[in-house]
Structures are given as C-alpha cells and as structure tokens.
Design brief:
Layout: H1 2-14, E1 28-31, E2 48-50, H2 58-61, H3 86-95, E3 99-103, H4 164-177, E4 183-185, H5 203-220, E5 225-227, H6 242-253, E6 264-267, H7 276-287, E7 298-303, H8 321-337, E8 342-345, E9 349-350, E10 354-355, E11 357-358, H9 361-364, E12 368-369, E13 377-378, H10 381-392, E14 402-405, E15 412-420, E16 425-431, E17 438-440, E18 446-450, E19 456-458, E20 464-466, E21 471-475
Helix pairs in contact: 4-5, 5-6, 6-7, 8-10
C-alpha cells in the first residue's frame, strides 16, 4: 500500500513539471571548505563558487565598526578568526575562470541586538534588546538576530533605523571586490533558527535589509545579480515554516516593486531527490503571487543529501557511494528539468553531507587518486557528477518527466525526455525510484544505452535492467 501511495504522489508531482530552458554551464556550482590547508582546486568543472562554506560570514569578516573603507583593519578579508580567507577565495576563483556568489549570514556579534554582550534588556548597553539569544546555537550567541541599528528604537521591529552598520559592511565588500563577485545573496537559510531566529526578526526588517542590500551593491556593481534571503524547509527546532515564512517575506518585498531582486533562491536537500519537485512547485506558486518575485528565475544555492553521516551508508557504517551517486545524478537531472537556473552542490570536500574529494582515503572510502597528480582522492560521486553534467549540458526538457507504471508486480520507472541541438538529438533519462532494480522495455526508436560509468551498450529488442542510477537512452 505504501509503495502504491508513493507512486501515486510521485506521478501527480511529475505531471506538473514545467518545461525548461536549455541547461547551460552556469547551472553547475560547488561549495568548497575553508581552503586554507593547501587543498587543491577541484578537478571537476564548475561555474560558480558560493562563499558560505568558507566561513566568510559577516561576523567573521567584521569584528568592530569598520565604516565603508575596505582596507580598515576591522575587516578581516585576508584571514579571519575561523581561518576563512576571502581574498584567496575571490582571487583564486577569478584565476580559474569561476564566478563567485557572496552570501551574508551571522550578524556581527558587536552590533547584534541580542548578542553576547547583552545580559538583559538595556544591560550593559542601550543597543541591546536582550537578553542574549542562545537559540542560535551555543557557539553563535546572538548571531541569528537583527542588527541593533535597523530599528530607531532597538528591538521595535519597525525597520526605521539607519541600518548603517550593515550598509557600511556591504559597501566595503562590494568596493573591495567589485565585479569579481557577480552574485549577491542576502542571507543564508533565513527561516532556519540557526541563521535568523524567527522570534526576533520581523518581515519589515527583512524587506529593509533586502532593499539596502540591493541599493548598495547595485550602486557599486550595476550588473550584479541580486538574490533575496534564501528560503528552505529547515529542520532545527524553532525554525519557521517554509511556506508561511516565504509568503510573508515576499509580501513584505512587494512594497519595493518588481526590480528589487533578480531571482529567488532556496536550498533543496530533498530525500529522495524526487521530493524536490513538490518543493519547487510550491515555491514557484508562492513567488508568482507577488509582484516582487513573479516570473523570477529560481536558484538552488545549496543542495546535497540531507542527514549527514547517518544516511545512505553500508552495514559497516561507511558511505554507500552507489546510493549517494544515484542521489546526485537524479537530483541534478530533476532540478534542471524543473527550470531551476542554478544548482550549487554542497560540496567538493564537505563530508559527510555532500562530498566528491577526500584527503583521507580510509575515512571516507574514496580510493581513486585525484586527477593531474593533485593531492587527495576522488569519491565515486565525482565522476558521476561529471558524467551527469556532460549529459545535461545543452539539454532542453521539452517533455515533462513522468512515472511509467510497469504493472503492479513490476513497479515503475521515472522517465525524463529531452532534446539537444534544436531537436536534432533526442534522449531519455530513466531510473527506478522505488525498488533496487526493475525490467524496462524502451520503445524501438531508442538504440543506445549509456551508463554513468561511461559504458555504452547497443540496445536490442527486449527489456533492460534499470536501478536507482539514471541511464541515458538515445535515439539514432
């Protein structure tokens, strides 16, 4: 019964899937860790690097009122307290022809209206709404709360203050790096209590932060892409509900009209990856109700399998790279087919959540030597990512993905048709989302079967075996 219900829900979701634009290089992005111990540059191709995994937060980069001068010693762009190095990140990306997305999060502790200096309301400083907020996490007291100067009366939530500290900080970052940073995202996982405590933020404040962010960046980098605070279905206790938070945020943005943001960003983390479909459809429906976000492209700025080390593991508690490789291939294909403009995987070296490279082959069971003699080992997800990327480049999903029912005894497969070269090439992705393997008989016009390991088989009349890993079928 559970299998039948899952099939029904998956079928209903897939039938709503929109057609997509052609998948371009700018769809593919990566997160990389702090990048401070001689780790090699990734040996898989990608277009954009997002900063959030490198600990280059507002709090890490700024520890005092620095003003707008990017060379002020209060701004720790070269090396911060968490060993993040913003200059190295931006300059190395430029040297490798990779774009950068800068995402703000963690309000600087000294300006947080419930930061570590706040023992109680007004004590020891009048800028405290207090008491200090420990709901953000033991190591980030008050960093998930608004800056004190966003309100004329601290903690009112009216967003009628100067917001000077935030604007000074963004001015310094934009001035220092200019067009080396193309994509600017206001806040990391705003509904997540660890990023912004919903008890103390108001949507007036969020709208004001977005407006100031847009105005400062665009005044310095007119061609910058501005993304709002990203939304998510976040799990820590005390986080805001995704749908209601997103609805209220976009409503607050509407007062500033349709030109405030250039897209809408979110975090996926769907398990199984087919669950991404319902999430994206819900987000699109909310966005299209609002003048500020209607028709704007979607950006998935952080995605991986959820659950960290406890998901998709073998009996000896090692990563199950077959399942994880299947996850990343399906997630990339499904997200591209949903007309999402960008997908940034978390990440290159960020086990146990998402990973393609490891320094220690034993710990992660990643045994393939890195390319070009570079240090470390490739995990099985790395070649799968590259192969899926090659399959997707230039693809247009001109037909909706669908579930093909193979009969109640046989199961089902997910089928996703696409074209390339203005319709001259026809391909189909097929996988089994519910069982280990099923028998599937392609239509006779499909003559080639390609596997994620690069192997190629000429199709004969009859069935093929399809499992959790997508296969690519091609017409003559």
């Amino acid at each position: 019964m559970k299998t039948v219900l899952a099939l029904f829900l998956l079928s209903a979701s897939l039938l709503l899937m929109p057609c997509s634009a052609q998948v371009q290089e700018n769809f593919f992005g990566l997160h990389i860790n702090k990048y401070t111990h001689g780790e090699p540059w990734p040996t898989v191709p990608f277009y954009i690097r997002r900063t959030v995994s490198d600990r280059v937060t507002w709090d890490d980069l700024e520890t005092c009122a620095g003003g707008t001068d990017p060379n002020n010693p209060c701004y720790h762009f070269r090396r911060n307290r968490e060993d993040g190095d913003m200059d190295k990140l931006v300059n190395d990306a430029a040297a490798h022809g990779v774009e950068v997305m800068f995402t703000v999060y963690d309000t600087a502790g000294w300006i947080s209206n419930r930061g570590p200096r706040c023992k109680g309301k007004g004590i020891p400083e009048a800028t405290c709404d207090g008491p200090a907020d420990e709901d953000c996490g033991w190591n980030s007291v008050g960093l998930c709360d608004p800056p004190a100067d966003i309100d004329a009366r601290v903690g009112s939530g009216d967003a009628d203050g100067t917001n000077k500290t935030f604007k000074d900080f963004i001015t310094a970052v934009a001035t220092r790096y200019g067009s080396k940073i193309k994509y600017w995202e206001l806040w990391n996982e705003a509904p997540n209590i660890r990023s912004s405590n919903p008890r103390y933020w108001t949507f007036k404040q969020w709208a004001r932060m977005t407006k100031d962010f847009h105005d400062v960046v665009k005044s310095i980098i007119p061609n910058a892409i501005i993304l709002p605070a990203n939304t998510c279905s976040c799990s820590p206790r005390g986080s805001a509900d995704f749908a209601s938070w997103t609805e209220d945020y976009f409503t607050a943005l509407d007062q500033y009209g349709p030109s405030l943001v250039d897209g809408v960003s979110f975090h996926g983390y769907a398990y199984p990856p087919e669950n991404q479909i319902d999430f994206v459809h819900q987000l699109q429906a909310i966005a299209n109700k609002h003048v500020s976000t209607r028709g704007k492209p979607l950006y998935d700025t952080e995605d991986a399998w959820p659950g960290g080390a406890g998901i998709m593991v073998t009996d000896d508690n090692k990563p199950d790279w077959n399942l994880r490789s299947a996850w990343i291939a399906r997630s990339l294909i499904l997200t591209a087919s949903l007309n999402v403009k960008m997908y940034i995987f978390f990440g290159w070296d960020l086990g146990p959540i998402g990973q393609m490279w490891a320094d220690d082959s034993y710990l992660w069971n990643c045994t393939t030597p890195n390319k070009d003699g570079k240090r470390g080992y490739l995990c099985p997800t790395a070649p799968v990512y590259e192969q899926t990327r090659n399959w997707l480049l230039g693809a247009t999903f001109d037909k909706e993905c669908s579930v093909k029912d193979l009969g109640w005894k046989s199961g089902s497969v997910v089928v996703c048709d696409f074209t390339k070269n203005n319709g001259a090439y026809h391909g189909r992705f097929v996988w089994d989302a519910l069982k280990d393997t099923v028998s599937y008989e392609p239509e006779k016009q499909f003559t080639i079967e390609r596997q994620l390991d690069g192997s190629v088989t000429e199709l004969k009349k009859g069935t093929i075996q399809v499992g959790p890993k997508p296969v690519l079928l091609e017409m003559k």
